[in-house]
Every structure is written in structure tokens, then in C-alpha cells.
Write a structure and sequence with these properties.
The complex is a heterodimer of chains A (420) and B (160). Chain A is built from 15 helices and 15 strands. In chain A, the strands form four sheets. Chain A has a seven-stranded mixed beta sheet, sandwiched between helices. In chain A, strands 11-12-15-14 form a four-stranded antiparallel beta sheet, with helices on one face. The radius of gyration of chain A is 22 Å and the shape is globular. Chain B has a four-stranded mixed beta sheet, covered by helices on one side. In chain B, strand 1 and strand 2 form a beta hairpin. In chain B, helix 2 packs across helix 3, helix 3 packs parallel to helix 6 and helix 4 runs antiparallel to helix 6. The longest helix of chain B has 16 residues. The radius of gyration of chain B is 15 Å and the shape is globular. The chains are: A alpha/beta (420), B alpha+beta (160). At the A-B interface, helix 13 of A face helix 1 and helix 2 of B.
């Protein structure tokens, strides 16, 4: 437990959260609710909702268009939001941060724009067994479309990426190595530095890192990671749904073709051809989602005020407590690494003879929200031999009391299904 | 959110019993027809086998993986369908469909459902309606000879 957790009573009794529940209008309005599905989407702090409202009530106009000052203000707000988000994830060159609808769109952008232009028959693409479908299916489909080989790097016995296997999987014909920084299904934190070193030593692939489960929970410095593309979603970190980003090396963004065509992304449109706008606009066709950008920037402010190191410490403490308490339940299997410090705030488990969906429904009646299913990671589920699992995930408003309620509800569900 | 009483209605003893000891849980080697039911959202997957003697279902069985609701529903279905004609089976399908989606059914129809009435608990759990209806959709498709694999989606907002 963290010192803050200990200060508020026993390991079982803590009502202490890092962020006050009152910061989150939905949670404040549902006092009995135990929300343990933050890895799917986080609840939103009031400051984010306020920022969105303030944008629409004081600044709203179409950015990059009007000659009038209100449009200029909207343009400025959008620009400021981008710079704020870039600073939060350690990106110095803010124009290389493309605002998107989220991780899925970011990955499809890279796959469509860069992949289609660079991956040929006979090349190969390497992904890992633990990828979310969003970082798996686009590459699989690209490989099928161009006749490239699709390689899946298997996991080691502890559920981490098998680095020895990775070094054998990547070769001179590898065009893309796509991997998650943190597994959404198991919470496993992957050694990005090692993966980058291995991939660089073996070839010249584009290194694509899915940070959807990392940015809300860890201090991330994209520039220091050494990858070529980094993607994440805003809605898992307190920001609005439909917010997110792709960060990519400037030279690659400049040389790769656009993703979507339309307004704002063009420079000159001639009868026979078109030239493209400068970064980041080249990859942001159409009226941008300023609301999402402004809301995401407010979420960055909120998280920085809490401090990402404090967020991390809080989640490690809760994860360790959940693993200890759930591990004591007879017939319960925990998936992923046994080391709480090697995970984000995710605990994935199953209970003997009770289907995860039956657990989830039983927990729902107790006011405990968990995810049950394959977590958009069917290839991983096949490898760990589970059709599906129950996943509890934590964030800044989670408490040791939430863990206690979770464990009690799991035991209750188990009792309901027990018997000859 | 549903309450404890609704949960008790969902997981009645008969449902728990059929989950623990599913009836007719086997392959039917001489089946006249069969169909797979899959729920891509949760991974539930089962196969239904039917053997006909003329117009009558002389035997029916299933196998697969799924939650308590989907397994119990399939198990109860095999008991309810065996010995029925195609027309009777289709009528039972309609009644069960109405039952799990919370559509009103008259007293006589309800009485005829017998043990299948235990499936009515899902009507209070919209996310679980597809669990109860998975086996039934597979049955319908096996009888119709339409789709060899039916897919139902728990995530879809529309009922059953």
C-alpha cells in the first residue's frame, strides 16, 4: 500500500482516493457506484466538462476559416489545446501531434497512409500476441491486401512479450513492428526501450507503439521512447470520447501521403492535382473536433495537478491490494504478471465454474462495474486459454473500499453458483 | 440497475441446475441438421443438432461454451423441443422470444412454456437477452436450413 493508503486505515478499509469523488459529477451523483472499468473509459472530471461548455459558450466558431476575431479565438484555442496535449506526453514538436478521434483512428491512419505506401508483397509486419484488435486487425488486413507476411510474436511464460522471439521475428524485410506499451487485457507494462533496441538492431521497420493504456496511468515521454509513431486516446484519461492523437516523426509525416482528403488539409487545389497543407493540418481534414481537443487539454491540466507519479503510485497500491485479496478467493485465477509494479491498474481474472458474464451481472446488481469478455483481444485470450475474463481496472478516483466491494461481490457470485 | 430480486429471478435454481448439469449435452452422430450459434461480443459458441422422424424432432442435443444463461437456455430448449413437430417448435420459439424480450404473453401461452418460464428473468437484464436467445436462434436456423452459423450480438441495443 502507498503511504496515503495506510494513513486511512487498514488495507481493507480505505476510502481514500487520489482524486476526490466530488471532482467527478457522475460518481458524485451515484454515491454507491463502484466504477472499476476505467481501462474501457474513464469518468470525466468536472473541469473537463466545464472546459467544453466554456468553449461552446464563449469561443465557438470554425477554426482556420473566418477572418473575424471569434474564429481566430477558436483557432487559438485549438492550437493551444494541441500544444498542451503535446507537452503532457513529452512531445516537443507539437505540430507532429495529429489530433484524431482516438487510438483506433490513429492506428488506421498510420496503417492506411504509411502502410499502403510502404509495405509490399514479400515484406512482413510484426505484431505481438497481446495487442488490442485496433493494433492487430489493421495490420493483418494490410498484410492480406498487399501480400505481406503477418507475424505474431508470442508471449513468454509470464505473459510478457518474448523478447528473444521478437529478435528472431524482425528481419530486414520487416516494415512495421506494432506493439502496445501496456496490455489492455492484462495490464502488462512492456519494456518499450528493449523492444525498440531489438527492432532497430534487426532492421529498419516503422515502430508503432499503442499508448492507449499507458498515457492515463504512467508518466509518458514520447520523444524519449524512440518509436516512430505513438498513439493514444483521450477518453481513457478523463478527456472526452472522440479525442486522441497520433504522434509521428516529422520527416515521416512530411513524406507520407494524406489519410483523408477535404477542407483544411489542402494548400492549392488545381484542376488536375492538389498540394497539401503543412503539418499538422495535412492529416486533419475537415472541421476539427475543437471540443474534444479543448476537453483533452483540460484533462491534461487535471492529471498534471494530481501528478502522474502520484497517479501511478496510487494505482500500484490498489492493484497490489486487489491481487492480494482476489488471490485469496478459492478457485479464482489471476492472469498476467504476479508483480503489481509490472502492471497498470488492471486485474484480469476468472472464477472456476462461473462464466465471466455471470460474474459481471452479479457484480452489476451490487453496483460494481467491471468488464467481462475478450477485451478486444481475442488472439491473446486464445493464448492464455480463456474464452473471456473479468477485468477490474482502476484510476484516480478508485479506492481500497472499491476493492473490498469487488472482492465481496465476487465471493457472493461464487456462492450463488456453488453447489452440486 | 436491476436489484437482488431480479438477480434471483435471473439465476433461479432451475437455471443454475441446467448450467451445472446441461441436459442432452452431446453430439448427435446421425443428426438430420445442425447449426452453430455464436456471439462474437462475448465469445459464446454452441452447436445444435436435430434429428427428425418425419415432421417430428425425435432427438436434439447441443454442445458449446457459454455463460450460465446461454447454457441453461440451450439445455431447457432441448427438453422442450424433443418430440415436437416443426410447427410446434416454431410456436415455442416465438413464445420464448416474447418471454425473454419482455413482450406480454397471454396466460395460456405462458402456461405452455412450462420450465422455460425460468428464462423470463433475463428480460430485466437487457445485456443478457442475447445469451438466452442464442440457442434458440441456432435452433431456428437449423430447422430453416438457412444460415449454418448464426451470430447474435450482446452489444446491440435492439432486443433479441
Amino acid at each position: 500500500m502507498s503511504s496515503s493508503g495506510n494513513a486511512h486505515g487498514s488495507a481493507h478499509g480505505g476510502a481514500h482516493s487520489l482524486a476526490p469523488r466530488s471532482d467527478f459529477p457522475l460518481l458524485a451523483g451515484k454515491p454507491g457506484l463502484v466504477y472499476l472499468d476505467s481501462a474501457a473509459t474513464s469518468q470525466k472530471p468536472r473541469v473537463v466538462l466545464d472546459a467544453i461548455r466554456a468553449y461552446y459558450t464563449t469561443i465557438n466558431a470554425n477554426p482556420h476559416r473566418g477572418a473575424y476575431s471569434l474564429s481566430a479565438e477558436a483557432t487559438q484555442a485549438y492550437h493551444d489545446a494541441r500544444v498542451r496535449v503535446a507537452r503532457f506526453v513529452g512531445v516537443a514538436d507539437a505540430d507532429t501531434l495529429i489530433l484524431t478521434r482516438g487510438t483506433t483512428e490513429s492506428l488506421n491512419l498510420v496503417c492506411s497512409a504509411w502502410g499502403r505506401a510502404n509495405v509490399r508483397a514479400g515484406d512482413n509486419i510484426v505484431v505481438t500476441r497481446m495487442e488490442h484488435h485496433a493494433n492487430f486487425v489493421p495490420w493483418q488486413q494490410l498484410a492480406i491486401a498487399v501480400g505481406a507476411e503477418f507475424r505474431i510474436c508470442e508471449l513468454d511464460a509470464s505473459g510478457g512479450i518474448d523478447l528473444a522471439l521478437l529478435s528472431r521475428s524482425v528481419d530486414a524485410r520487416t516494415k512495421v513492428v506494432a506493439f502496445g506499451q501496456v496490455s489492455n487485457a492484462l495490464g502488462t507494462i512492456n519494456p518499450v526501450g528493449e523492444i525498440v533496441r531489438i527492432a532497430r538492431a534487426a532492421g529498419s521497420a516503422l515502430l508503432v507503439c499503442d499508448g492507449a493504456q499507458a498515457v492515463p496511468h504512467l508518466r509518458v515521454n514520447v520523444d524519449a521512447l524512440g518509436v516512430d509513431a505513438y498513439v493514444f486516446s483521450g477518453h481513457k484519461m478523463g478527456g472526452p470520447m472522440g479525442s486522441g492523437a497520433l504522434v509521428m516523426r516529422r520527416a515521416i509525416l512530411q513524406s507520407m501521403p494524406p489519410y483523408h482528403f477535404g477542407g483544411d488539409m489542402i494548400e492549392w487545389v488545381n484542376d488536375d492535382d492538389t498540394t497539401w497543407n503543412v503539418l499538422p493540418h495535412k492529416f486533419e481534414a475537415g472541421t476539427p473536433n475543437v471540443e474534444a481537443a479543448v476537453g483533452l487539454a483540460a484533462a491534461c491540466d487535471y492529471l498534471d495537478a494530481l501528478g502522474m507519479d502520484a497517479v501511478r503510485a496510487h494505482e500500484v497500491a490498489l492493484t497490489a491490494e486487489a491481487m492480494r485479496a482476489l488471490g485469496a478467493v478459492p478457485g479464482l485465477t489471476l492472469y498476467g504478471t504476479a508483480d503489481a509494479a509490472g502492471r497498470s491498474g488492471v486485474v484480469s481474472f476468472s472464477v472456476a465454474d462461473v462464466h465471466p458474464h455471470d460474474i459481471a451481472t452479479s457484480l452489476d446488481v451490487e453496483g460494481v462495474c467491471v468488464r467481462a469478455g475478450h477485451h478486444c483481444a481475442q488472439p491473446l485470450m486464445r493464448a492464455i486459454g480463456a474464452q473471456s475474463t473479468v477485468r477490474a481496472s482502476f484510476w484516480v478516483y478508485s479506492t481500497a473500499d472499491d476493492v473490498t466491494r469487488l472482492v465481496a461481490a465476487v465471493r457472493g457470485a461464487q456462492g450463488r453458483f456453488a453447489g452440486a | 440497475m436491476a436489484d437482488d430480486a431480479a438477480l434471483d429471478a435471473l439465476y433461479q435454481e432451475i437455471i443454475l441446475d441446467h448450467n451445472r448439469r446441461p441436459r442432452n449435452f452431446r453430439e448427435l452422430p446421425n443428426a438430420t441438421c445442425s447449426a452453430d450459434g455464436k456471439n462474437p461480443n462475448c465469445g459464446d459458441a454452441l452447436t445444435i443438432w436435430l434429428q427428425f422422424d418425419g415432421d417430428t424432432v425425435s432427438d436434439i442435443s447441443f454442445q458449446g461454451v457459454g455463460c450460465a444463461i446461454s447454457k441453461a437456455s440451450a439445455s431447457l430448449m432441448t427438453l422442450a423441443i424433443k418430440g415436437r413437430t416443426r410447427t410446434e417448435a416454431a410456436a415455442i420459439f416465438e413464445r420464448v422470444h416474447n418471454l425473454v424480450t419482455g413482450t406480454a404473453i397471454d396466460g395460456d401461452a405462458a402456461k405452455e412454456l412450462g420450465q422455460l418460464r425460468a428464462l423470463g428473468g433475463v428480460s430485466k437484464f437487457p445485456m443478457r437477452v442475447k445469451c438466452a436467445s442464442l440457442a434458440w436462434h441456432a435452433l431456428k436456423s437449423a430447422m430453416d436450413g438457412s444460415e449454418p452459423v448464426v451470430a447474435v450480438h450482446t452489444g446491440a441495443p435492439a432486443p433479441a
